[in-house]
Write a structure and sequence with these properties.
CATH topology: Arginase, Chain A
Shape: globular
Strand order of the largest sheet: 4-1-5-10-9-6-7-8
Strand content: 15-25%
Structural class: alpha/beta
Order of helices and strands: EEEHHEHEHEHHEHEHHEHEH
Helix content: 40-55%
């Protein structure tokens, strides 16, 4: 399969720092070589900000546009785009803008794997952390003027979003999610039925497949339990096992064709054992192989 790795090595506008180091680190650790060894043709493109001062919001907006162009170009060439990003917002907004431009609005479902809801708004966030608002922006709940400035972008209807693994939520954010049409599936709910990940996901994926024609799979690495490897300083206990995340990828792509994927939020300094890095590489390979089957 032809794969385009879109690198966005920024964290809050800072190049190669904290989680912005993750995309570079994955390639230093041979991610592209692993994909090639598995029979995939790999191309790479890196988003870069121009020199000078960039505040966090301005940097994100500039990166949105570069990701949009890179994902659109990859899809136009028949390649499967995988965005490797420090932050969730640039990966998600840019990718969805590219997908919105080549499809009927609302035809792309979003499966969002994350320890956090990313559903805050400027009014609900106790920290003001912009990346904690990524899913809110994507669904039209905040920063609507900023999102509208991105060529081709269309908001994703809430009932086309499945949030999996979120467990570290701010109180007001939890209320927003509860009042929304976003479907949220906890780690406990994935396990409680006893039938495994596929059985737990089936009714949720059936609903998405009835509303959309394809999926964007967004994988924030801290959805994994820290025992699988600490992805970053925001990692929270009670997360998915790696095997469960792999089963989830298979389940999603068995029900909806995968249009694009992103893996975000790996901070190598939080991963001295290298386990999170190894998990990330395995997950990217699984995404590519599953996309080839879908």
């Amino acid at each position: 399969m032809d794969v385009s790795l879109v690198q966005v090595p920024y964290d809050s506008g800072h190049y190669g720092e904290r989680m912005g180091r993750g995309p570079v680190h994955l390639l230093e650790q041979g991610l592209d070589r692993d994909l090639a060894a598995a029979g995939h043709a790999v191309s790479r493109v890196e988003a870069r900000l121009a020199g000078g001062f960039h505040h966090e919001i301005g940097a994100a907006a500039a990166l949105y546009r570069q990701v949009r162009e890179a994902v659109a170009e990859a899809r136009g060439a028949g390649h499967f785009p995988v965005v490797l990003a420090g932050n969730c917002n640039a990966a998600a907004l840019g990718t969805v803008a590219a997908l919105s431009a080549d499809a009927v609005p609302g035809s792309t479902a979003v499966v969002w794997l994350d320890a956090h809801g990313d559903f805050n708004t400027p009014d609900t966030s106790p920290s003001g952390f912009f990346d904690g608002m990524a899913l809110s922006v994507l669904t039209g709940g905040s920063w609507s003027a900023l999102a509208a400035s991105l060529p081709g972008f269309a908001t994703v209807p809430e009932d086309r979003v499945l949030l999996v693994g979120a467990r570290d939520l701010d109180p007001a954010e939890r209320d927003l999610l509860a009042a929304s049409e976003v479907e949220s599936l906890s780690v406990a709910a994935l396990r409680d039925g006893g039938g495994g990940v596929a059985a737990a996901l089936a009714p949720h994926l059936d609903r998405l497949a009835g509303r959309a024609e394809r999926a964007y799979l967004h994988l924030d690495l801290d959805v994994l339990d820290p025992e699988e490897g600490a992805a970053n300083s925001y990692a929270a206990p009670g997360g998915l096992r790696l095997a469960e995340a792999l089963d989830l990828i298979d389940s999603v792509t068995g029900r909806l064709p995968l249009a694009a994927a992103a893996l975000t939020s790996l901070d190598p300094t939080a991963d001295p054992s290298g386990r999170a890095t190894a998990a990330a590489k395995r997950l990217v390979l699984a995404l590519v192989e599953a996309a080839g089957r879908s």
